[in-house]
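Continuing the series of single-chain predictions for the mutant panel. This is the parent chain; the variants come on the following pages.
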Amino acid sequence: MSLAARLWPAGDAVGSTVLLPNVGTFRIIGVVPNLQYEEFGEDSESARLQLHLPYARAGWRNMAILVRTSGDPAAMTIAVREELARIDPAQAPFDIMTMVDRRAFTTWPQRVLGNSFAAFGLIAFVLALCGVYGVIAYSVVCQTREIGVRIALGARPTAVLQRVVGQALKMAGIGAVIGLAAAVLFARALEGILYGVSINNPTPYAAVVALIIAAAALASFLPARRAASVDPTEALRAD
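Parent structure:
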């Protein structure tokens, strides 16, 4: 399809002829979608310029046959061998496997690296959440004396609680915006080694920001609520 669009941008490629050096002249009888022959992440623009020739005119020493079935592909191995032997007993098929197994065989480096990065990323994310929780919780505990003074002067505990949680969420929001900008820049740097993943998908970014905001809210709400519920004189004695 890419080759047809490049050579015949304004018309239909079907019925046209192409001349291939040392091969001959061929008439185009159809246009098929682009196929991927390279490994994941290795496909290029030139690799998508494909021309499929009749095997009788330009055959290879070996070839691959794809078999589509509605049942279990692994159960078709014996039937495929028998059918090929019936067509041509001189042929010796080898390396027969399902497309799932073939895909798993050719993508194991990407899967190993992907799983490793996912595990490290999850550990880093959990540590980040624990760090956000600890820092904000400690900062709120340090405001215990201030909370006691406000309550002693007549402030309602709920208003004090809202103020403390609001301050924590503001700090978390600023940090989330900075981290989000850094994440977008870092994702663009990794775009070249990603396959089938869009760095413009907002769902992962929104999920991470939501979890960080939730951790900050929880980290500020629990100690602030505990400090607002104690007697003001006890809060004023706190170090």
